[in-house]
Amino acid sequence: MDFFFNAADDVVDDGLSGLARIAPVRISDRDSGMRLVVDREFDGQRVAVISGGGAGHEPSHAGLVGHGMLAAAIAGDLFTSPSVEAVLAAIREVTGPAGCLLVIKNYTGDRLNFGLAAERASREGYRVRSVIIADDVSLPDDVAARGLAGTVLVHKIAGHAAAAGADLDTVAEQAESVSQALVSIGLSLSSATLPGAAREPRAAELGLGIHNEPGVSEVDPSDAREAVRLALEPLLAEARQRHGGDAQWAVLINNLGGCSTQEMGVLTNEVLTQLPADQARIAIRPSPLMTSMNMHGFSITLLPSDETVAAALFSETAAIGWPGAAHIATPETFAPIESRDRQSGTGPRDAQVADRLRAATCALSAARHDLDDLDAAAGDGDTGTAFDRGAQAVCRALDADRLSTGDSALLAEEIGDLLAYDMGGSSGVLLSILFTATAAGLADGATLGEALTRGIARMQAYGGAAPGDRTMLDALMPAAEALSAGSIADAAAAARRGADATADMGHAGAGRAAYVRDEALAGVKDPGAEAVARVFEALGPVVTR
Amino acid sequence: MDFFFNAADDVVDDGLSGLARIAPVRISDRDSGMRLVVDREFDGQRVAVISGGGAGHEPSHAGLVGHGMLAAAIAGDLFTSPSVEAVLAAIREVTGPAGCLLVIKNYTGDRLNFGLAAERASREGYRVRSVIIADDVSLPDDVAARGLAGTVLVHKIAGHAAAAGADLDTVAEQAESVSQALVSIGLSLSSATLPGAAREPRAAELGLGIHNEPGVSEVDPSDAREAVRLALEPLLAEARQRHGGDAQWAVLINNLGGCSTQEMGVLTNEVLTQLPADQARIAIRPSPLMTSMNMHGFSITLLPSDETVAAALFSETAAIGWPGAAHIATPETFAPIESRDRQSGTGPRDAQVADRLRAATCALSAARHDLDDLDAAAGDGDTGTAFDRGAQAVCRALDADRLSTGDSALLAEEIGDLLAYDMGGSSGVLLSILFTATAAGLADGATLGEALTRGIARMQAYGGAAPGDRTMLDALMPAAEALSAGSIADAAAAARRGADATADMGHAGAGRAAYVRDEALAGVKDPGAEAVARVFEALGPVVTR
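Structure tokens for the assembled complex are given below, as produced in the milestone run.
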């Protein structure tokens, strides 16, 4: 399966059933042989804007049914116009005394089937007007232009006028005037795939239709910038010829089906960068509006925008396929507030604390190879190297007299900063969280034991490990507990017991060791826990309260 | 190029620039080395909901910035967590006295970098709380669950609470409670492609992450129904275990990036069909919300829905990436109003008209091969066959006395119906439009010439041809004109001159002949025009007024 569907014949009906579960619509019975989708709220007192055509262009047209857009849509099979009877039935279903407007894309099948339905409906006494949309500017003058995504703007503008209570002639004239003004062009890197069919490899093409008709020319853009330029050049040329060089534009960037959101973001930026900034005023939010199944391409539509057009594009609609409009602005930028240049070492000094700290860093550096060896059993054998890097950073700061050894809160914060920047890696960030949160506790007046407990809790919250998971927590937590009740020496003893116990922990629940078979870890201590024990052992018998 | 982009390193920044042109946001300077997107309207008086992570999940998270959702988003490189400094700068940029909530997806990099930023910001005096989202239910219990599309529901619900003025603890507790309740699972037919890289062929997988992590199991669904079943089974099992068997659900069907709108329609229908109807209450409109570049897959998220959740999901937001919510309903269906069984032949009879009509049908049938031959020069040589089919249908109706030959309006309408159903093809529909619109004119009291002129105008409007395009119009239009001023005999003479003149028309502007080289048509009459001439010639000297 390379397309999510059940059976090729069910794609259209399944989609309509899905729509009917979440949109304000009623749909015709599946066994009626017709596919009508009508606005559940429509009462025939206003002009009914009706559209449709072959399926495969979703959300057009069924997804555009709802107050403020279409009163009804008729779908055919994939890429195949619906029958005259189906169009006629849709007209009958929704058209009241205000009459209806048929919005028809300029394809022979649609013109004829909608056209005959319109004539029949007229004979039945309905007031019917039609507008034919031919917004594609890519074809030579002597070939009939196709209807592309610009059609959706006609739905929106006519639908808005109808919802506002305009009469049939007014709605039809607005639709006709929009239809005459619209210009669109498409560019795609691929053809559309019908469900179950293999994708036909095809060159990138400019000026293509929405039913796998060949494009007007093969193109080979080297990047998004060029792709947009290739499309915009003929589009702007035609638009300027029709509307002069200083028109204000509403811009629709339509996903033909297969563009990712990332590509649509890049394309949107290109289109809005390449269009003159003082002319591109309103954007329809980039989205798939008139698709060609999964075609990997886009189309651009320009419509001169006046107050009427703007009001219609920004108005609310209950149709779930309409993505909304936005004013186009020059990006507003700002300079981020970066960290203040940290003035490390602004606090008092305490020579004894400095000595202990230096002892701890020396112990860690000395343990480097032991720790790397322990880590080799479960990971890539670099725990010792990482801790040594952190230890050396602290050592250098001590050498340069840049640590506030006489203020424990400030010192913890300074060490936290050093570890984040100079130790790096996950363990550097984790230890930085530990020291930074511990510093906050100390600053709040907690004892070292309490503050460390708080730091451990934060490290646990962000690191995700629990006691018994073979991590440094297994030494840190007993150490903090012992520290709250006793001395650094007690803490060192507790850390040692905790570190040694990790050798018997069968399973690692967090960190990389989580993915290693239990047997490989039997009898091997966790290098992080061992590092913690060695640090506490080196800190020695400092009395903390 | 198989992805619309400029350079791999520019995809994220280009997308953010595009966003900043159409969304209510400010973005950090491109050369700042950070990617911050903040709500332009946010004033720090309410709780700032902040999220982010690696890029490649658009519209998450930058597209979700706006009143009612995120106050700020931070993006890293594609699939790479942003730096601690960037997260910290975002906190500083938007956080006011009300504090901020960090919404963090459960990946080690995000947890650590957001975590350290949170601790640093706390030290700087900001009120910061965090919630970690781990909605993926696919992994075994002893492996940390990943954050998937459910994250977006936390943004929406926390963002709504914050916009409504709730305090930090309330917002954080709501977010935490939603986070605990969410369940999600993904299924994809492909991996994600990074721009410029070739797509790695990979089996369909269930329980996959959003960074090309391998899925929990390979699957091989035969259709969309099975794909949805495979995803829903473990999802519902987990959801029922957590929330009991009768919870009311909000359902998010997330496009992982590469699904077409048609596939999303089919998948939506499947999900909402397979979920118990009395439990699935609210749907987020299906759309790409948490993508993995162009990954061809979907994820389903369930969240127990109470009044608070419902109010938040339905509330307005200025974020352009939020697609809106909908109540889930059983599809409401109706039987289309089909054409009344047409009672052909209900009007009076006129033997002379019947004779003339029969003569015309005989003339057309006799002309079949001549017309086919003329058509062979420009088309597939079936014009004669098609006209013969229409003529025979009229003939059979005359034989069965089913035509109202004594009422010209009724007769024209009856012939129009016959041609649409029994002649078929484009020309059948076109002629049906001609007869139906002519009938309307006759019913309004117009003369035959006037009514025919009106019919021709409608045929032209929907058929798209103009005089001189080598079509039946070239005989019909002079005939109608002659008929308005004179007799059928005059009309026949005019039609003959018109048909003969098509032999010298170099270029066909409509119909299939439009694509044939001019030389191939030199001296060949248009078969449609010839058919019209023969019909008028056969109708003979009936006086029409």
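Chain A touches chain B through 133 residues (CB under 8 Å). Residues 224-243 of chain A form the longest helix (20 residues). Further analysis is deferred to the final report.
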